[in-house]
Amino acid sequence: MRKIVLALAVVSLSAGAALAQQPPGGRLGTGLPVPRYVSLKTDRVNLREGPSKDHRTAWVFQRAGLPVEIIAEYETWRRIRDSEGTEGWVLHSLLSGRRTALAMPWAKGDQPPISLFDRADEKSAVVAHLQPGVITNIKGCDGRWCRVMIAMEGARDVDGYIQQEKLWGVYPNETVE
User: Fold this and answer.
1) What pTM was estimated for this model as a whole?
2) What Rg, from alpha-carbon coordinates, does the chain have?
3) Which SS3 state, helix, strand or coil, does residue 15 take?
4) What is the pLDDT of residues 58-67, one digit of tens each?
5) What range does the record give for the signal peptide (predicted)?
């Protein structure tokens, strides 16, 4: 009789532990890693105080391609954080898996422009100088350097390499393919 009671207690504890890991209401997200970086799909994205359209809009992003970090998921809603630390909820359909990054958004105005090189080497030729906050499209990262492309309106796109530590939108030592 004791063995049966112990077995029931173990099953009961395991089920309780599984329930404790689920978000409120038992609704799971995508199963993708959290946190992770994505980008805004459109030029107008409402950042809400909670995960529904009933919650107040706290901010409106107006920059398609802006990188954001998903820090939580609830049904079709994603809690995101921008490079300035602002957090809120957006519908998943307003986000893109396309990886973008900001060139040193933390830099102050008195810092020199950020160099974009033609190879993953500081001694290689500089192909462009970037101002802080420029959105770059991530082509790949090896953990130290990222190959990026900057779309230029009315001109040829710029392609080159930047040190990964100078970007917000990729994790330190992260490899992006």
Assistant:
1) 0.81
2) 21
3) helix
4) 999 999 999 9
5) 1-20
